[in-house]
Sequence to fold (499 residues):
Amino acid sequence: MASTLRVSADLTGPLSESDVVVVPVVKVDESFSIAAGVESALAELDCSADIDAEYAKRQGFDAKGGELLILRQHQDGPVILGAGCGDGSDLESWRLAAAAVARRAKGSRAVLILPPNGAFDVVVVGEAVATGALLGSYSFSVRSTEPKPSLKDLDVVTMVDGKVGTTSALSEGVTHGVSIGGAVGFARDLVNDFPSSMTPEALADAAIQRLSSSTRVDSDVWGLERIATERLGGLVGVNKGSTLEPRFVVATYMPEGNPSKHVILVGKGITFDSGGLSLKPANGMMTMKTDMTGAAVVLSALSACQSLGINAKVTAIAPMTENMPSGSAVKPGDVLTARNGVTMEVLNTDAEGRLVLADGLSYAVEQDPDVIIDVATLTGAAVVALGSEVGVFFANNEELAEGLDASGNASGEPWWRLPLYEPYNAHIKSEIADIKNIGASGEAGTISAALFLQRFVGDVPWAHLDIAGPSRSDKERGLYPVGGTAFGLRTILEYLRSL
Fold:
């Protein structure tokens, strides 16, 4: 479940009374050292600040982000750990260091001491370690056995006039990191819940309840009757095979003062994808409860806008339904009509995400936005191209592409841009409708899906984020647990902050 770790910039007691004290360790050439300015904290604990390189190597420690080294351990005082931060110039190393502490430190309370000066301002590092700690401590389990002991409190502090303490800048950074980590944790909870529990109705209700805590967010939820009246033909068509009604969520955050831009986020919300009548094989369905990650990401992003002081107007749109086989399900060969009037020939009912996004994007264009960004676990071809750790994105606008690329780098989420190669529009040309929902067999499936979506955004600056690969993880690694990762959420929040 979302992390229960309390992360704050308050020192709740003397260092000697904590269970664990963590100091950052950097590597320069072949030598290791405590980050400059933190040595005096170790003197307070009668611990040497010198690190024997041979000892470190015997422990397999190379000061990489996520590596921990025991500097002192005895019965009468706190365990003192060194957390690898590379050379200190990479924010991801700081996130990984905090994630490792949150995941592996033993005891109830730990103190992480940040250097007062370094490659980054303390507010930036404070945000990074708070985010990393919450992401690293996340887990989702309903085992009946006792859960493993976990850290309850992490105090993030720095050195002030030679003593351990805090500053307003550090407090601001940690507060922002807690907001980001909380949003990611909420999105992961939505994704990891069971498909029979996280229905379209339940997903909409959970999101609205979360958003209701923000005084600057207004939300609206459409049921089947309203969806049909509003001509959302793609969503209605995909929903036909399910006994559960669809939902269409529209929620808007309005900042104080005049917004800098209006950004619309559209997220795919397929709460379970069986493939419809084009049925997936059994092992292909095992992870399909995560096919609503796009909706979870955009709605969770909206929940953090107020606490992060986002200056743009941000609208989240999430079409939600199951994709199930039944006697009433949409059939290969059927034609659906999207809200903007574009007709879509359905040749494979397992290519359903683009059908519901067509309605979401069409509705988004009508709201006169400055930017549209859609997020979806859309194509297996994206996984074939870039594996399970890198997201794919497309953009019809260079400024937007550069902004997202920079935001991905700043947040630590890796992306690779693919082209909207115009000649491949021939791959989705239909003989009987405007477009068809599959491209050429075995060729450029991720690109043809993006070109399909492009038909619904007009001239609005738009980006498509295909997170099919990194949306879930089969193993615990870095900031990611087993299961849903909510990949893309931190990039979106970073982009919104840049506005």
